[in-house]
Amino acid sequence: MTTPNPTGVSPPLIELSGVSRRYPRGTVALQDVSLSVGASEFISLVGPSGCGKSTVLRLIAGLDRPTDGQLQSPALLTAGPAAATAFVFQDPTLMPWASVFDNVWLPLRLAGMSRAAAAPAVHRVLHAVGLADFATAFPAELSGGMRMRASIARALITQPRVLLMDEPFAALDEFTRQRLNGDLLQWWHAAGLAVLFVTHSVQEAVFLSQRVLVMSARPGRITAEFHIAEPQPRTPAFRSTAGYIEACRAVSLALEAAHSDPAFAP
């Protein structure tokens, strides 16, 4: 029996309540982390290296388990469309011996779909990410930005409910990075999925996100949260507005405060 929701507000798609992660040798990666992500929300995590940002993504993806606390995530459900979660890493991790088409087809192939049956979906997602003319190309023939587009296409082909991105644009030049930022917002807006995005760039986090969460040094905790009020999807012009500049300043100050506070020292 379900309980009526008198407020009409949908429950979060992802929720961590008091989650901690301690590894067998005693390292505490996360301590008492609580956060929620709505069904079509874009959230970025920023913080120093080693603060547990990637650990949060691994927990949500079901690749790791919390030591303490409660975790709700589609990836922990029974396999199927309701559980669909995709992960994009900094390294595109494409198969070098396979064409772009075959790299993108891989998740559907593993699910038992033939190449012919998958072809319409593969071509559709390649068109969406700007690689329609590169289906037969191999990863070595692509630029870094194009390889990342192929990696994102491989994630989107599964029509996930959740897209987890771990510093996907960190190795790219600034022009390519900014262009992919804009494209990512278009893909997210079109698909209506939840995105949790890890980055070291305050500017990137503010441009992309509806909310930016700041984490302390290990053991990782969420020390500040910022709502970015600019409507979505955003254009490059947002980067020159007073609101963008002020949000970047506020997030940067919160990062500095979290790092200097003895309560959050590693």
In short:
The protein is an alpha/beta fold. It has 2 domains: 17-84 and 163-266, Rossmann fold, CATH 3.40.50; 92-159.
Overall description:
Helix 5 (174-191) links the parallel strand 6 (162-166) and strand 7 (194-198). Helices cover 34% and strands 20% of the residues. With 266 residues, it is α/β, with parallel strands linked by helices. Strands 5-6-7-3-8-9 form a six-stranded mixed β-sheet, with helices on both faces. Strands 2-1-4 form a three-stranded antiparallel β-sheet. It has helices spanning 53-60, 100-110, 115-128, 144-156, 174-191, 202-208, 242-260, and strands at 14-22, 28-37, 42-46, 68-72, 85-88, 162-166, 194-198, 211-215, 222-227. The model is unreliable at 1-9 (pLDDT under 50). The termini are far apart. The chain has two domains: 17-84 and 163-266, P-loop containing nucleotide triphosphate hydrolases (Rossmann fold); 92-159. It is built from seven helices and nine strands, in the order βββαββαααβαβαββα.
| Count of strand segments | 9
Specify Rg, calculated over alpha carbons: 19 Å
Instruction: Characterize the quaternary organization of these chains.
Output: single chain
Terminal Cα separation, in Å? Answer: 45 Å
Main β-sheet, spatial strand arrangement: 5-6-7-3-8-9
CATH superfamily of the largest domain: P-loop containing nucleotide triphosphate hydrolases
Poorly predicted runs: 1-9
How many distinct folded domains?
2
Report the mean per-residue pLDDT as an integer. 90
Number of helices: 7
**What is the C-level CATH assignment of the largest domain?**
Alpha Beta
Share of helix among residues? Answer: 25-40%
Rough outline: globular
Judging by the overall fold, what is the CATH architecture of the largest domain?
Answer: 3-Layer(aba) Sandwich
The CATH topology assignment of the largest domain is: Rossmann fold
Give me the strand/helix succession.
EEEHEEHHHEHEHEEH
